[in-house]
Amino acid sequence: MCADLSRIRRFLDERDPPTPCLVVDTDVVAARAAEFRAAFPGALVRYAVKANPAPPVLDTLVAAGAGFDVAGPAELTLCLERGADPADLAYGNPIKKPRDIAYAYGRGVREFTSDAADDVDHLGRHAPGSAVSIRVVLDAPDSVTPFGRKFGCEPAEALDLVLRAAGLGLRPGIAFHVGSQQPDVAAWEIGVTTAAKLFAEAAAQGVEMTRLNLGGGFATTHRTAVPPLAAYATAIASALDSCFPAGRPDLLLEPGRVLVADAGLLRAEVVLVANRGERRWVYLDIGRYNGLAEAENEAIAYRFEPVEPHPGPVGPVVLAGPTCDGDDVLYQRTPYELPLSLRTGDRLDLPGTGAYTASYASVAFNGIEPLRTYCVGRWGDA
Ligand SMILES: *Cc1c(COP(=O)(O)O)cnc(C)c1O
Fold first, then answer.
1. Pairing outcome for strands 21-25 and 171-175
2. How far is residue 229 from each of residues 104, 218, 234, 258, measured CA to CA in Å?
3. Which pLDDT score, from 0 to 100, does residue 202 have?
4. Do residue 353 and residue 325 come from a single domain?
């Protein structure tokens, strides 16, 4: 869905902040959160903080009644500082130090995800009695930014881990993540089917699970349209109905991108235009190291909209970032066309950039500061 970005554009017109910068409209985040809740009634929503941890974004989601999926102690502390209830936090990162588990437990977190025997043992020791969802790896259709094999265990091992967790006094459930920016709504069906089998197998061994974590992965539109949220909700509901005919388990959802991407607009400036052989290179003050990390492998193809009017013709470009790094190229295979009159100092707007931009920026590579975020709207700080 297209967000109304007029408040952001007004802010940019009036304040003209140095570029590059990201502007997020917290009202749009609130609207997305409301839409998401309406699409999945009854499910517990845990916003994946890594998508955009700007304090006003967290404030917006606390006010919206969402919980938070945190990756470690720093995100956890940040959420608590912004007023989140520890009962609404889920420590969703399967890779965690025992002392970080103990810290989370000490701060009141009782919901974890795990995918390895040692980690289950650490949880049994440092987070006694907690809910632990065992993450399974799926042969789901490739997402735009897949997780590969880094996370999740095979379903056969998952059953062992479920029984192991129950034996340690933990409350096991099942989790999966279909990969971020997942355009195939049928991907969740594979996870739900796998989970239902594990629920039945565990029950046969005397362990009744109650929790199913459906992860994140809901895609947002950049250059190509993705299915509306309602299409995801319908596909997931029908998978749940057919796989859990006797009644649904308690559901957890961990949306990241879908709650914040459309709420953000990034403004950048052209540093240099150079014709090299057949190709016109346009170097911007935004690149892979100061905000557009997801352009790696050209996975996410952002939109670039000239701010100044360029009435003349457009032509193909290679887009690259500002740093002294040969990999700081944004797009050389993905076709892009920009005005032939584009010159140094001209500006470009990148809509749909509220997720995985500022949070991915390096701290000082080439002395370039991390992408600055301004938040506008009801919970804004700008
Ligand atoms: C990153 C992540 C999410 C959020 O994924 P999106 O694709 O942004 O919705 C949810 N859960 C876990 C465990 C994650 O690592």
1. unpaired
2. 32, 8, 9, 9
3. 98
4. yes
Q: Could you tell me the residue range of the domain that residue 224 belongs to? A: 26-260
Instruction: Specify whether 255 is located in the same domain as 271.
Output: no
Task: Tell the residue nearest (CA) to atom 13 of ligand 1.
Answer: 92
**pLDDT of 1 strictly over 60:** no
CATH of the domain at 274: 2.40.37.10
The predicted model scores a pTM of 0.97
Task: Answer with the one of 260, 295, 313 that is the final residue of a domain.
Answer: 260
248 with 134, same domain: the answer is yes
DSSP state of 326: T
Ligand 1 centroid–CA 257 distance in Å is 8
pLDDT at 382: 87
Q: Which atom of ligand 1 is nearest to the CA of 179?
A: 7
Ligand 1 centroid to Cα of residue 90, in Å, is 12
* Last residue of one domain, picked from the residues 241, 260, 279: 260
pLDDT at 168: 98
Catalytic status, residue 79: no
Domain count for the chain: 2
Judged against a pLDDT cut of 70, whether residue 62 lies above it is answered with yes
- Ligand 1: atom nearest CA of 256 is 8
Structural domain includes residue 45: yes
Phi, psi of 73 (to 5 degrees): -60, -35
Nearest to 283 by CA among 342, 224, 335: 342
CATH of the domain at 121: 3.20.20.10
91 with 216, same domain: the answer is yes
Counting atoms of ligand 1 from 1, which one is nearest the CA of 257?
8
Do residue 211 and residue 268 come from a single domain?
Answer: no
Using the predicted structure, report yes or no on whether residue 368 has a pLDDT greater than 90.
Answer: yes
Model confidence at 302: pLDDT above 80: yes
Distance 24 CA to ligand 1 centre (A): 20
Q: Which residue puts its alpha carbon closest to atom 1 of ligand 1?
A: 48
- The catalytic position among 2, 153, 243, 324 is 324
State how far the alpha carbon of 264 is from the alpha carbons of 130, 239, 253, 283, in Å: 36, 32, 22, 22
Q: Which two tokens stand for residue 316?
A: 């193909």
Do the beta carbons of residue 45 and residue 36 sit within 8 Å? yes
Q: What is the mean pLDDT of residues 349-370?
A: 97
Give the binding-site residues of ligand 1, using a 6 Å CB cut-off: 48, 50-51, 69, 92, 177, 180, 215-218, 254-258
With a cut of 60, say whether residue 331 has pLDDT above it: yes
